[in-house]
C-alpha cells in the first residue's frame, strides 16, 4: 500500500492534485490507516497511471471520468473527439503562424508574392476560420503594433490608398474602443 505522498512523488504530482482526484471521484484510496492516512493499492497505482496518461493527452477531468466509468464504451469516442480537437487547434495555430510570418515579412520590407491580392488574402483568412469580427481584431492589432507596416501591407494587396486609409481608421477606432482611449 502507498501513502498519498509516496504516490504523488512517484508520478511527479502534488498532494493537492491527488486530493482533487479523490474529490472528483477519479482516484479514491482503497483504505485508510489507523491514523487516518489515505492508502492506495497497486490497482490504484495503475488507475493513476491511466489518469496521468489521459491528462498528458489533454483530456479533461470530465472526459477521464467518462472513460473510467465505462472504458469499453467511452474511451475510443472520447479519444477520437480529443484527436479531432487537437487537429483543429493545430490547423488554427498553423494559420496564426503563417499570418505572423507574413506580418514580419511586411514589417521587414520583404514584398509579398505578386499573386497575393485582397480577395486571395480574405479567402485565406476565412479558410483559417476567421470571421469578420476576427479579421477586424487582426487589423486593429496590426494597426496598433505597426501602423506603417499595416498600411504597406494593405497597399501590397492592391487595395486603393483611400480604402487602405479607411481600413486603418476603422482599425484605430476598434482598438481605441477596446482599450478605452485614443490611439497613441
From TrEMBL:
DNA-binding keyword on record: yes
Keyword Protease attached: no
Classification via InterPro entries: DNA-bd_dom_put_sf (IPR009061), MerR-type_HTH_dom (IPR000551), MerR_fam (IPR047057)
Key words of the record: DNA-binding
One annotated GO molecular function: DNA binding
PANTHER family: HTH-TYPE TRANSCRIPTIONAL ACTIVATOR MTA (PTHR30204:SF90), REDOX-CYCLING DRUG-SENSING TRANSCRIPTIONAL ACTIVATOR SOXR (PTHR30204)
UniProt protein name: MerR family transcriptional regulator
Native source organism of the sequence: Geomonas terrae
Lineage, highest ranks first: Bacteria, Pseudomonadati, Thermodesulfobacteriota, Desulfuromonadia, Geobacterales
Amino acid at each position: 500500500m502507498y501513502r498519498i505522498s509516496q504516490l504523488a512523488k512517484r508520478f511527479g504530482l502534488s498532494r493537492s492534485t491527488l486530493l482533487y482526484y479523490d474529490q472528483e471521484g477519479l482516484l479514491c484510496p482503497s483504505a485508510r490507516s489507523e491514523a487516518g492516512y489515505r492508502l492506495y493499492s497497486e490497482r490504484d497505482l495503475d488507475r493513476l497511471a491511466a489518469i496521468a496518461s489521459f491528462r498528458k493527452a489533454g483530456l479533461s477531468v470530465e472526459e477521464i471520468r467518462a472513460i473510467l466509468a465505462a472504458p469499453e464504451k467511452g474511451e475510443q469516442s472520447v479519444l477520437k473527439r480529443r484527436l479531432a480537437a487537437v487537429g483543429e487547434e493545430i490547423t488554427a495555430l498553423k494559420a496564426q503562424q503563417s499570418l505572423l510570418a507574413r506580418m514580419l515579412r511586411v514589417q521587414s520590407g520583404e514584398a509579398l508574392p505578386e499573386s497575393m491580392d485582397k480577395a486571395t488574402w480574405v479567402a485565406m483568412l476565412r479558410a483559417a476560420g476567421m470571421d469578420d469580427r476576427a479579421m477586424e481584431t487582426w487589423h486593429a492589432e496590426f494597426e496598433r503594433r505597426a501602423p506603417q507596416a499595416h498600411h504597406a501591407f494593405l497597399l501590397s494587396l492592391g487595395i486603393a490608398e483611400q480604402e487602405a486609409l479607411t481600413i486603418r481608421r476603422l482599425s484605430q477606432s476598434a482598438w481605441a474602443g477596446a482599450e478605452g482611449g485614443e490611439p497613441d
